[in-house]
Amino acid sequence: MKILSVVGARPQFIKEAVVGEQLRRYGAHEILVHTGQHYDVNMSDVFFRYLELKKPDYNLSVGSGTHAYQTGMSMIRIEEVAIKEKPDIIVVYGDTNATVAGALVGAKLKIPVAHVEAGLRQKPKDMPEEINRVVTDHTSKFLFCPTKKAIDNLKLEGISKGVYFAGDVMYDLFLRLKDSIDDQKVLEKYGLQRESYILTTVHRDFNTDNEERLRNILTALGEISYVIPVVFPMHPRTKKVINQKNLWNLLGKTRVIDPVPYHELVALLANSLKVVTDSGGVQKEAYFAGVSAIVLMPDTGWIELIEHGWNVLVDADKDHLIEKALNHVPPSSMPKELYGDGKAGVKIARILVGED
Ligand code: UD1
Ligand code: UDP
């Protein structure tokens, strides 16, 4: 069984770390394609090194650009690889331009596509990730859902064949690595004390590329930073916009650092008092770590965490953000196994290699 896995952006390296390992364990011959969408050392190489990912068999060096450029170049180059390698299945992860490119290539070449993290839906419907999710789900043959809600979402769109509840692969990884991370070392590196700071990440295009929203968010973080330390590993997209618009002064005493490797992110999350984020992965990892997240979005694919009161949606409302970041108290208990049993990678691999 030959499987071609497509990755390109930071969250996909993390998901591939789980699924790729299991695919190879169950005897698949895996060809790994990196589209090159993320290319800085701290956005790509650090994940390959720390998570011991397979070295990509192909790096397509697509880099940054418009959506059409990134998706189009990725498609052209993935197609060349797929024609040469003739895989039995193409695996794609999440909702980036690399995801939709891999899915469209597979569908057009009639190679079955497996979508890991299928069925998530969120408003606004015109956000790039939502477009990528819908197209990918409608062109996939295997749809591995991280939540029960995702299965319901697919049903509403008439998709029920090939749909599996796998659980969340990021939960697998979190469980596997959390005890091996030296939290104290990371806290010392950044001069932080346990449960006495807020961790924030911001990179969503509707927040960075809309000046009013960005100003609201940065101003709120700035105000919060005078009450409690705020640490902000900053995505290059956000840094670029803040530089262009010269908005650094809004951040007050916020401590801005470069993007951190996965184990540092987990340590920073697990020891924080609260998380403020627009990241899909981080809002869920916060829950895994027992910390609640204030979510800078109007809606989220991880809606169950909002419904149970663990996380809160504040969109880009400055006052709401400040109030919730400082005062939100999550419930004392949560339903078990919202994201599966930590064996999503095994389930996905067994189904793809035909053992289940
Ligand atoms: C992409 C995904 C988003 C995901 C995020 C994870 C799409 C449409 N978006 O968004 O869903 O949540 O990755 O982090 O696929 N840049 C660098 N160095 C890099 C990578 C990017 O400087 O290594 C800068 C460039 O200026 C680039 C900008 O960041 O133009 C945006 O990068 P891009 O990959 O287009 O989108 P993300 O915002 O990273
Ligand atoms: N992450 C990391 N270092 C950082 C920020 C994020 O290791 O400085 C990890 C974190 O585990 C997160 C994943 O990268 O879940 C993907 O995050 P990102 O916010 O880039 O993408 P999204 O999940 O929103 O698509």
TrEMBL record:
Top-level division of the source organism's lineage: Bacteria
Recorded hits in InterPro entries, A to Z, give: UDP_GlcNAc_Epimerase_2_dom, WecB-like
GO function term, MF aspect, one: isomerase activity
Question: Which keywords does this Swiss-Prot/TrEMBL entry list?
Answer: Isomerase
Query: Which part of the chain is the UDP-N-acetylglucosamine 2-epimerase domain?
Result: 27-352
Instruction: Give the protein family.
Output: Belongs to the UDP-N-acetylglucosamine 2-epimerase family.
In Swiss-Prot or TrEMBL terms, this protein is called UDP-N-acetylglucosamine 2-epimerase
